[in-house]
Amino acid sequence: MTFGSYLLCSTSGDPITIDRIRYRTPVKPRSVSLKLRTVTPKVWKATVDAGQIGAALGAPPHFRQREAPGDYEDARTGSRITQSCADQDKEGTGFTELRFVLDVGKQGGYIDTAWIDYHVNGSPYTLRLDWKMVACGSRIPHTVDGTVVCDGKQT
Q1: Contact of 113 with 133, CB cutoff 8 Å
Q2: Confidence label for 66 from pLDDT (cuts 50, 70 and 90)
């Protein structure tokens, strides 16, 4: 199961360097890998499926429901984000998206919070992501924070 639509960009226009990405797993998946997906203006204009993907079955770039073109690389210490937020807001300029790829077994997997530690021009920052990433399974509750997330079926 893959979760994304975490668009990364620089508000100042200065490059961002990722120091680490942390996350909390109330139900631990077998594994979690972090990917940066970069969609350039050329790919954006040439492909109807180049948009952001909130969640999808499978792993990038070949999901079960659709293809997700772009350049993929591991998100790790030293990864750089050069996308300007001002440019990213314009149609067709491309984007950089952080994707969480969860490998889950029958138990499922659940990430309830993530933190991106990064620096810009030597100054450290942390971005907190409070989105819930749930892959249904035997250890996943029917509801999370009052919202039905699993209907008894596994993903």
Answers
A1: no
A2: low
Provide CB contacts within 8 A for 60, sequence distance 6+: 2, 35, 37, 68, 72, 99, 101
Q: How far apart are CA 150 and CA 133, in angstroms?
A: 12
For 87, the 3-state DSSP assignment is: helix
Does residue 81 contact residue 113 with C-beta atoms inside 8 Å? no
Q: Is 130 in a helix, a strand, or coil? A: coil
Where do we find the tokens 């990213």? 88
What's the sign of the alpha-carbon dihedral 52, 53, 59, 65?
Answer: negative
Q: Got the DSSP string for 13-65? A: SS-EEEEEEEEE-SB--SEEEEEEEEE-HHHHHH-TT-S--SEESEETTEESS
In tens, the pLDDT along 68-119 reads 778 889 999 999 999 888 887 677 778 899 999 999 999 999 999 999 999 9
- β-pair partners for 114: 23, 129
Enter the pTM of the model.
0.84
The residue assigned the tokens 């021009």 is 121
